[in-house]
Amino acid sequence: MSADPPPVLVPPARRQVIVDTDTGLDDALALLHLAGSPHADVAAVTTVYGNCVVQDSARNAAHVLRLAGLADVPLSLGAAGPLEGEAHIAGYVHGGDGLGDLGLDRPDPEVTQRTSAEQLVHLANSAPGRYDLLALGPLTNVALALRLDPLLLTKLRSVVVMGGSGPYRPLGEVLMVDANVQNDPAAARELLAAPRPAADTLTLVGVDVTATVVLDEAMVESLRRAGTAWGDFAAATLDAYADFYAHEWGRRVSPVHDGLAAGVLARPELVTATVSGPGAVMSNGFATRARVLRLPDGTPPAVRPEHPPMPALTAVTAVDRAAFLADFVTSLAEGVRR
Hints:
The chain has 12 helices and 11 strands. Strands 3-2-1-4-5-6-11-9-10 form a 9-stranded mixed β-sheet, with helices on both faces. Strands 7-8 form a two-stranded antiparallel sheet. By secondary structure, the protein is α/β, with parallel strands linked by helices. It is 36% helix and 18% strand. The protein starts with 14 loop residues before the first strand and ends with a helix.
């Protein structure tokens, strides 16, 4: 009796990603990395304020899409400020234009008639289960979309957020600012409270893990030597980013905040550890963070949230840094669609 033939392995479908972004320096590289990924397609870009004003966010996103050969990807203009209070613009990190004031040609782009929130709802309802959402900025657009369609998250394949601080840290550890949550805590609460099918449908890639993935000067130099338009852009962008982090760490390096979130969405196998549990947006009167309500040993924290705990979510706590950085730098250096 002959043996059964080996099964035919069908590769998984490329992820169709909606990128919601406040297109600053690291957002631009995350978008470019995703554009070069063999695992994902950039299906749409929705813009928001944050690293720069929303008009610059759109100009910057359009610049990156042109560079990536994706000028036909629909681009939407979104929220200019948070649900409550005034917008905080991080020009001291990303430059006045959001891209390090490098003097790039950034004409006003063509944008969809739908706002970013409307575009999110339209795409999710047009093909439920098709799209993944990568949220790289303040969560205002997503909250506004949830107000239009409270079941939005049930119609997306997944949501990956560059934001949050993961579970509570071991004693003595200090974290970076959870900027995307701090810029609109009300929006973050609305996202965390939204109905979703399961904990792993919403994944936070927070500052507790992104701060541990660092691009050094040798990696930037390899991008400069690549001799490609992508490599030149990435090197110039990282030089501008390093101007800020040199004051933080005393060296010309930079963490890969948004790029790591993009990498995790495109290649979930890069994740080596996660924590799942009820979420909350917490403030100590100075900093506001999105948390998983867990201590390092898995027990609940002593502090009680101001609002009822949210449904369970998943936070990435560790990744294969070497594999991600190799993939990230290679994609930016090659400068071609793969």
